[in-house]
Specification:
15% strand, 15 strands, alpha/beta, 399 residues, 2 domains, 42% helix, six-stranded mixed beta sheet, seven-stranded mixed beta sheet, Rossmann fold, globular
Amino acid sequence: MTVQNAEPLMRLTWTDEVTGARGYLVVHTLVSGVATGGTRMRAGCTMTEVEDLARGMANKTATFNLPVGGAKGGVDFDPKDPRAFGVLERFCSFLRPWIDNHWVTAEDLGVPQHLIDAVFEKLGLQQSYHAAIRRSADPERTLRRVQAGLNAPVPGGLLLGDVVGGYGVAQACLGVGAAWEWAAADTTVAIQGIGTMGGGAAWYLYEAGMRVVAVADAAGTLYQPEGLDIPALLELRDQFGEVDRTRLPEGVRTLPRDAIIGIEADILVPAAISYALREDNQGAVRAKVVIEAANAATTPEAEVALTARDIPVIPDFVANAGAAAWAWWLLLGEVGADPADSFLRLRTEMQSKVALLLSQWNLDRIAPRVTGHELAATTRAARTQDALAPEGEPALMIP
């Protein structure tokens, strides 16, 4: 049975005694006794959503040949509510057995990395990669390496841990441009979401010379056909990734939030919410390709319709896997605190995978998700075969 249609290993539901909020943990697969996947918080989060996300994480770890399985946490609560930190702390406290031994989590929608780390510190666990760090030969040394990598400064005044996911999405976009021989200066991009993932992607696409003509946040769409001044817009964001409309650069037009879907651009990057592209709105898409920066950004029905319209979708478990892959390279000591090394590896792996997906699309119109699933299944089968031994599956070895 392949990852995409396998039943999850475990589903767990939690109810907060203080607020009544519901939380969910889905462990799709365990590899070497470990699963990885972020924790999100949003009003309306459901078990079905978290299960979809856990399945996506299992595909990510397989596609990038990581020695772990896939999982996801989710809390149905407004992250802007002043009680959100307490809700998240109680959720993690309840899941302590999994957090101690099996589940390596990180940031996701509504939960920035510094917030989840603050919760773990309050629980006495130091950092959200705790379940992996405690398995290492020298946990203190591994913790120092992880913290050095997460906090390495990059151009633009940000930290490597905050931008690496967006960098990976940008490389997926640049990989599409390379595969189709598009000149960067002539390529236009529309991005739904300008938080950690969308903002990072916008920054690196701007730096690479592509024209980001539209971005959207919760307040609406910002549009400038000549190309937005991305560094200026990013300076205007608040802690929730929303841009201050009172200080917009000259020439920026404000449009309704959903207008981003129909912006005329070569590349559409949904980088905010799950299920942003649905059967009822996919017809508005005018882009030549969709690159999923958000997890589960496109419903299956919408993807079928887009494929029929000759618009390929680069799936989330490839396009937005950069942060997850990099975190494990860092944990395993395969990259260190030098951003140049991390960027080189991620650029090389992301662009090669996008090239593979598009080669099958160009030749036979095989949907990129299908090719991606085949790659994930092949990689996971090879890893499973390597693990077969009289002693059983080997323990995860972290230096």
